[in-house]
Specification:
The structure holds 2 protein chains of 2 kinds. By secondary structure, chain A is α+β, with helices and mostly antiparallel strands. Helix content of chain A is 28%, strand content 25%. Chain A folds into 3 domains: 142 residues, Aldehyde Oxidoreductase, domain 4 (2-Layer Sandwich), CATH 3.30.365.10; 189 residues, Aldehyde Oxidoreductase, domain 3 (Alpha-Beta Complex); 299 residues, Aldehyde Oxidoreductase, domain 4. Chain A has 21 helices and 28 strands. Chain A is globular and about 85 Å long. The N terminus of chain A is likely disordered. By secondary structure, chain B is α+β, with helices and mostly antiparallel strands. In chain B, strands 2-1-5-3-4 form a 5-stranded mixed sheet, sandwiched between helices. Chain B starts with a strand and ends with a helix. In chain B, 58% of the residues are buried. The model of chain B has no long low-confidence stretch (mean pLDDT 97). The chains are: A alpha+beta, B alpha+beta. Chains A and B meet through helix 1 and helix 19 of A and helix 2, helix 3, helix 4 and helix 5 of B.
Chain lengths: 755, 160
C-alpha cells in the first residue's frame, strides 16, 4: 500500500494557514496577551553596571510597599552545579543559566537581572524596584572580544580555565575553550598555491530583533503544580529548564507555548519564565512578566560579535588548495558562543583537501549570546566568502564559476567530518548563474556581489498526534511552536499523505501535558523532523482506516487499498463495494473498534544539509557613504518546499536580516560599558523603505531521508548576505570592507582613505 | 492619583473607561478593555505594532494617552473585519502569506488601511515609505508590500 503518491496535490502549494484568521484579526494570543484572575505584574531590576560585585541587596523597603506581594533575588534560587545540557544547536550550563536569570555575587553586564518584584499594578511594581537598594562595587569591564583575550584583561569568572588546551592553564582566562578542526596539511597546501589571500574581519553582535518582547505568565498552585504560558520556540525546553531551576518534578509544570512573535533562535532559552514562576510561588498569585524593548536589547540574545581571520590559497585555475581560519567569538557574560558550528561551517561548502580552523569562545561583559539563525555560521562564512570574492577578482574568474570549481558535492568529505550525501550546492550556483539578475546591466557607483552559505539542518525528537473526528475532519497536534507557518506545512503533509482536503486538517500546537516531548523549533528542523512524525501518524491513520473499511465490508484488510482519501476494494476479487470516504469510515468508528487516532514519537535522523547562493546589487552614495540594496536574489536548495509561499518568506526574511547585519545593526557600548542604543530607533533593523523586493529561487534536490524530500529552510538564508553585500560594495567602489556593519560613516571613511 | 473618566467610541461602539492620567492608549486598550490585538513591540513609537486610527489619524497607541481618546473615534484591528467578512487587506494578507509570526500584522493592516483610504493607487515606493514605521522581522516586507499593492488594485477594480 502506498499513500505517498508521486503526483502531489498539496505539497508545494500555498494554502491559507490554519491559524491565519486569528492572526489578521488580533485574536491570536501572544505571550503578553493572557490575563488571569488576580494576576500580579512582575518586574525585574537590572544592573546599571557592566561588571560589579554585589555587596548587598536590601529589599525590605520594597517588601513593605503596599501592593507588593513578592520580592525575589538570586537567594531564592537553589545554587546549581555546573552542568552542560544540549540547547538547540548550542549547549547550556544550568549554573550559568541560573546566574543569568538572576545575578549571584556579581553582575556581568549592563541589564543583568538582580532582583524582581510582583505587585498589584505596574506602577507599584516600578515603585518597588526603586526601593530596592543594591550596593555595588564596580569592577573593570571588557566589551571587545580581542581585548577580553589580552593577558591583563578584567576576568569575568575566576574559575574559568581555558578548555581544549594542554596542559590546562593554571591562570583563569576569559577564553572558555579553544576549538580545533583540521584535515590535511595546510602548510603543504599553501605551498602549492599560486595565490594566497589572507584578511581579518570584524562582525558586530546583532540581535534577533523579534518584534515580540519576552513574556511569561505563571501560576503556581499550593500543591506545587504550576502552569506557565510563554512565547518560546520550545516549551519542552522551558519546562526542563524551569523545573531544574525551581527544583520541581518536570511533570508538575505544564507549559503552554503562546503564539510567538518571532524568535530566530533568541527564544530557545529562558529569562523571565523561571522568575515569573518563582514570584508566583512566593506570592501565591498568578504573575505576568513582560520585557520592555530596552530589556530585550540589554539582557537577551544577541548572537556573537567576532574577530575573524581567513587565509585561502588557490591555484591559478581557481582550485582551492588550502583554507585556514582563526575565529574569536564573543559568548557574552557566560561561556557558550556558537564557535563550534562557526568553525565547522567556515569552509563546509567547498571541497578542500587542507583545512585548519581554530576557534575561541570568549566571555565579555555583554548579555549572554543566544542562537540566531544558523548560529555561528554567518560569521565565519562571511569571512571566507569575502576572501573568495577577492580571489575571483584577482584571478579574473567569475565568482560563481570559482565556487563551482570548488563546490562540495555528493561524496565530498566535509572538513568538519562527514561525507556529504546528496546535496544541491552546485544546483544553487547554476540557478544563480542562469538568473536574469546575474547578467542585468549596472549603472555608475553600482556593483554586484555574490556569496554562498551552508547550514547542516537538524532533526531530533518530535511527536505528533492525529485524531480523526466523527465527521472525518482531522485534528493534528504537534509539540512544535509555529514560528512562521509550520501549522500550514504540517497540515499539508497530513492532507497529502492521507489524500484529503488540507482545509479539513486543523493543526494545533499542544502544551507539554498534551503531547510527548518535542525538541524546540530551531535549526530548520520542524518541517523535516516534526513533519516526519506527522507523515508517520498519517500513514498509521490510513492503515487504521483500511482496517475499518475491511471490517465494514467484512473482507481481508489486504483486499482494501487507500486511494485519494477513500478506501476501495483492491480489485475485482476483493468484491463489489462503493468506496468509503474518510468521513463515512469515521462515522462508524464506534462500531468498528473505537476512535481512530495515531500517536507518533520519533527521533528524526538524516537531516539534509542546505545551501544557498545570493546575488546582491548595491549602489554606493559617494557623498554620504550610504549603501542602497537595489536588487536581491536568493537561491536556495530546500529539498522540497512544502508550503511554497512560507518557504519563500523564510528565505526573504533571512536575507533581510542578513542585509541588516551587513549594513546597519550593531551594539553601541559607551565607556562605562552601558548599551547606548537599546531601542529600535538607534538599533536600526531594516524597514520597508530600506529594501527592494527579494527574489527567491527554490531549488529542490530532495533529501532522500524525508518522505517528501524536505531539508529545512530557515537558517541558510541569513548566511550569504553579509558577504554578498560586501562583495557588491567592493564591485561598486573597489574597496574591501572588512568590518560590519558597513554603515555610512565606515563606508565614507573607507572612500576618503581610498581616494 | 484619581483616575480619569473617558467617554469615547471604539470600533463604532460607545465605550467608557477609567484610566490613570499617565496611562497610554495602548495600555488602556490592552489592559482595561482587553483589546489585545494591538501589540507592544517597543513602547517608544518605533515599531508600529500598536498602530490604531485615532480621530482619523494613524497613530502609535503607545505614544497617545488613554485620556486623549475622550470624544474621539478609535479604530483598532478588532474592528477591521465586517462581521464574518474580512477586510480586503486581511484577505489579501492571508492569500499572499504576508505574515509569518503575525505579531506585526495588526499594525501593518491598520497602517495599510489608512494608506489606501488616503491614496487608493500608491506606488511601491509610496507603500514602502508609508509602512516604514511598521517593523517586521520575519518577511523582509516583500509579501506585505505585494499584498497591499494587489489589494489596492483589487479595490480600485471593484469601484470602477
Amino acid at each position: 500500500m502506498t499513500s505517498v503518491t508521486t503526483e502531489l496535490k498539496w505539497v508545494g502549494k500555498s494554502p491559507i494557514r490554519p491559524d491565519g484568521a486569528d492572526k489578521v484579526t488580533g485574536r491570536a494570543k501572544f505571550g503578553a496577551d493572557l490575563m488571569l484572575p488576580g494576576m500580579l505584574v512582575g518586574k525585574v531590576l537590572r544592573s546599571p553596571h557592566a561588571h560589579a560585585a554585589i555587596k548587598s541587596i536590601d529589599t525590605t523597603k520594597a517588601e513593605a510597599l503596599p501592593g507588593v506581594k513578592a520580592v525575589m533575588t538570586a537567594a531564592d534560587i537553589e545554587p546549581m552545579s555546573s552542568e552542560w545540557v544540549p540547547a538547540g544547536e548550542l549547549q547550556l550550563n544550568y549554573r550559568d543559566l541560573s546566574n543569568n536569570i538572576m545575578a549571584s555575587g556579581k553582575v556581568l553586564y549592563d541589564g543583568h537581572a538582580v532582583a524582581a518584584v510582583a505587585a498589584t499594578s505596574a506602577a507599584i511594581a516600578d515603585a518597588a524596584l526603586q526601593l530596592i537598594v543594591v550596593d555595588y562595587e564596580v569592577l573593570p569591564h571588557v566589551i571587545d572580544v580581542e581585548e577580553a583575550m589580552e593577558p591583563d584583561a578584567p576576568i569575568l569568572h575566576d574559575d574559568m580555565f581555558t578548555q581544549g588546551v594542554t596542559p590546562t592553564p593554571d591562570k583563569p582566562s576569559n577564553v572558555f575553550k579553544e576549538v580545533d578542526i583540521a584535515v590535511g596539511d595546510v602548510d603543504a597546501g599553501f605551498a602549492k598555491a599560486d595565490l594566497i589571500i589572507e584578511r581579518s574581519f570584524k562582525t558586530a553582535p546583532v540581535h534577533q530583533g523579534y518584534l515580540e518582547p519576552h513574556a511569561a505568565v505563571a501560576s503556581f498552585a499550593e500543591d506545587g503544580q504550576a502552569e506557565l504560558w510563554c512565547c518560546t520556540q520550545g516549551h519542552f525546553s522551558v519546562r526542563a529548564y524551569c523545573a531544574k531551576l525551581l527544583g520541581m518534578d518536570i511533570s508538575d509544570l505544564r507549559v503552554t507555548a503562546s503564539e510567538i512573535g518571532g524568535g530566530f533562535g533568541g527564544k530557545t532559552t529562558v529569562y523571565l519564565e523561571p522568575v515569573a514562576l518563582l514570584l508566583s510561588r512566593k506570592s501565591g498569585r498568578p504573575v505576568r512578566a513582560v520585557m520592555t524593548r530596552e530589556d530585550v536589547f540589554r539582557a537577551s540574545g544577541p548572537t556573537s560579535g567576532a574577530a575573524t581571520w581567513v587565509k585561502v590559497g588557490v591555484t591559478k585555475d581557481g582550485k582551492i588548495v588550502a583554507g585556514q581560519a582563526v575565529l574569536k567569538y564573543q559568548a557574552g557574560a557566560f561561556a557558550g558562543s556558537p564557535i563550534q558550528p562557526g568553525c565547522m561551517c567556515a569552509f563546509a561548502p567547498y571541497d578542500i583537501e587542507n583545512v585548519k580552523v581554530k576557534g575561541y569562545d570568549v566571555v565579555t561583559n555583554r548579555p549572554k549570546v543566544a542562537a540566531y539563525r544558523a548560529p555561528g555560521a554567518p560569521i565565519s562564512e562571511h569571512a571566507v566568502e569575502s576572501v573568495l570574492d577577492e580571489i575571483s577578482k584577482k584571478l579574473g574568474i567569475d565568482p560563481l564559476e570559482l565556487r563551482e570549481r570548488n563546490a562540495a558535492k555528493e561524496g565530498t568529505n566535509a572538513a568538519y567530518g562527514p561525507k556529504f550525501g546528496v546535496i544541491g550546492f552546485a544546483d544553487t550556483l547554476a540557478a544563480a548563474k542562469a538568473h536574469p539578475h546575474y547578467s542585468a546591466p549596472l549603472g555608475p557607483n553600482q556593483g554586484r556581489g555574490v556569496a554562498s552559505g551552508f547550514w547542516f539542518n537538524i532533526g531530533g525528537e518530535s511527536c505528533a498526534t492525529l485524531n480523526v473526528a466523527e465527521d472525518g475532519t482531522l485534528v493534528l497536534a504537534t509539540g512544535s511552536p509555529d514560528i512562521g507557518g509550520s501549522r500550514a506545512s504540517m497540515a499539508i503533509m497530513a492532507a497529502e499523505t492521507i489524500g484529503m482536503d488540507v482545509a479539513d486538517v486543523r493543526t494545533i500546537v499542544a502544551d507539554t501535558a498534551s503531547i510527548g516531548y518535542t525538541f524546540l523549533t530551531g535549526g530548520s528542523r520542524v518541517t523535516f523532523a516534526t513533519g516526519m512524525a506527522v507523515i508517520e501518524a498519517s500513514k498509521q491513520v490510513t492503515e487504521t482506516l483500511r482496517e475499518r473499511a475491511a471490517k465494514i465490508w467484512d473482507i481481508s484488510v489486504d483486499a482494501v487499498v487507500w486511494e485519494d482519501g477513500h478506501a476501495k476494494p483492491a480489485g475485482a476479487n476483493a468484491g463489489e463495494f462503493e468506496p468509503l470516504s474518510l468521513g463515512e469510515i469515521a462515522a462508524q468508528a464506534g462500531k468498528t473498534g473505537g476512535p481512530i487516532s495515531a500517536n507518533v514519537a520519533l527521533n528524526a535522523e538524516g537531516a539534509g544539509p542546505g545551501f544557498g547562493t545570493h546575488i546582491c546589487d548595491v549602489e554606493v552614495d559617494r557623498e554620504t557613504g550610504a549603501v542602497k540594496v537595489l536588487r536581491y536574489t536568493a537561491v536556495q536548495d530546500c529539498g522540497k518546499a512544502i508550503h511554497k509561499a512560507y518557504v519563500e518568506g523564510q528565505i526573504q526574511g533571512g536575507a533581510a536580516q542578513g542585509i541588516g547585519w551587513a549594513l546597519n545593526e550593531e551594539y553601541i557600548y559607551n565607556k562605562e560599558g552601558r548599551l547606548d542604543n537599546a531601542g529600535f530607533l538607534d538599533y536600526r533593523i531594516p524597514v520597508a523603505s530600506d529594501l527592494p523586493m527579494i527574489d527567491t529561487v527554490i531549488v529542490e534536490v530532495a533529501n532522500p531521508n524525508h518522505p517528501y524530500g524536505v531539508r529545512g529552510v530557515g537558517e541558510v538564508p541569513i548566511i550569504p548576505p553579509m558577504a554578498a553585500v560586501a562583495n557588491a560594495i567592493d564591485s561598486a567602489i573597489g574597496i574591501r570592507m572588512t568590518e560590519l556593519p558597513m554603515s555610512p560613516p565606515k563606508v565614507l571613511a573607507a572612500l576618503d582613505n581610498g581616494s | 492619583m484619581a483616575k480619569i473618566h473617558v467617554t469615547t467610541t471604539i470600533n463604532g461602539e460607545p465605550t467608557e473607561f477609567l484610566c490613570e492620567p499617565q496611562q497610554t492608549l495602548l495600555d488602556v486598550l490592552r489592559d482595561e478593555l482587553r483589546l489585545t490585538g494591538s501589540k507592544e513591540g517597543c513602547g517608544t513609537g518605533d515599531c508600529g505594532a500598536c498602530s490604531v486610527i485615532l480621530d482619523g489619524r494613524l497613530v502609535c497607541s503607545c505614544l497617545a494617552l488613554g485620556a486623549e481618546a475622550e470624544g474621539q473615534e478609535v479604530e483598532t484591528i478588532e474592528g477591521m473585519a465586517d462581521g464574518d467578512n474580512f477586510h480586503p487587506l486581511q484577505q489579501k494578507f492571508l492569500e499572499g502569506a504576508a505574515l509569518q509570526c503575525g505579531i506585526c500584522t495588526p499594525g501593518f493592516l491598520i497602517a495599510a488601511k489608512s494608506l489606501l483610504e488616503r491614496n487608493p493607487d500608491p506606488s511601491e515606493t509610496e507603500v514602502r515609505y508609508w509602512l516604514a514605521g511598521n517593523l517586521c522581522r520575519c518577511t523582509g516586507y516583500d509579501k506585505i508590500i505585494r499584498a497591499v499593492l494587489e489589494c489596492a488594485a483589487d479595490m480600485r477594480g471593484n469601484q470602477a
